[in-house]
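As promised in the previous annual report, we have extended the structural survey to additional targets. Below is the entry for Cytochrome c domain-containing protein.
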Amino acid sequence: MEPIRNPYAPGAGQRPPELAGRDRELDAFEIVLERVARGRPERSLILTGLRGVGKTVLLNTLRSQAIAAHWGTGKLEARPDQSLRRPLTAALHMAVRELAPRHPSPARIDEFLGVLKSFALKVNAADTKLKDRWSPGIDVPHTPGRADSGDIEIDLVELFTAAAGVATEVGTGIAVFIDELQDLPAVDVSALCAACHELSQTGAPLIVVGAGLPHLPAVLSASKSYSERLFRYLRIDRLGRESADLALTLPARRENVEFDEKALIELYERSGGYPYFIQAYGKSVWDHAPRSPITADDVRMAGPEAEAELAVGFFGSRYDRATPAEREYMRTMAELGDVEAVPTAEIARSLGRKPASLSPARDALIKKGLIYSGERGTVAFTVPHFGRYLRQTPA
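The corresponding structure token record, generated without further manual editing, is:
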């Protein structure tokens, strides 16, 4: 079949041609938008799941819903080595610029931008040389004494309150979307929770929609004990068989191509229902199949190419970031388990080491986003099928 007509799109954060199996999340967010629009209190939203389940795609789709509802929106990706101030400034600047044409007072917008600039400039240390100081590119004077105490928790509460005030005056809301939320520095996580708590108590029309790895709830809880009640958590998992079939068949039918039943069974077994893998296998099978309908034989012929691409782009690129000690740790994990969490004590026993001696490798792998600790004393891979990849790949 013609590769040019291939509808499948494996890529980081790239929206698939059919966003199947996510109606629950889309409906839940629609309710949040409607409730906030009517002045009802609502919790911010947290999406969690392994890599490859489509969290970033879903985050972008939720943002599109907010835009369609005439909200101001901004998005950022958290990084462990970067303060929240700089990317959040850009996100809120974008959100308020979306609302500005509908606001009755340009001076009021400038007033908020002055507060935002004050918040942003605190990213510069007091001893930073003038030539090295970062400026947010906001063309209004900063407002001294507003969101510039230097305490990120105090400043963030004040900033969010000011932004919510702008949204109230327009008669809408603001949504800040944060990807890889677990990578925020601990002090910023604490500040974000405090700001969301303050907004929830006042019913202000500003919400945060975060996405991160499965241990994100534990990260938030460790920061503020009330975070368990502060956010609404949605676990994003692999697709069931029916939804996985739709993700494959609906885009194909739009190109007048069909799959036979055995092909769909084979594809589900190989992909495990993980959205990224579905797209990767779908793309390879399309390119290899000579005609419609696509058969199980076509899937078996195309399988090695899809697996080779995943080995390089999805698994290998992550494995290459690990040191020899970290690779040894992961390979031992792979021998003990794949999807399920593995006790760290068992890893130490298998390596003939004391658990404390392995802590540096474990902590480094967690920081690199290759493993996570959902429960004390256990670790698991953040990437589905990673254990299988390691078992099949020579050291």
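The chain has 16 helices and eight strands. The longest helix spans residues 296-319. These points will be discussed at the next consortium meeting with the crystallography subgroup.
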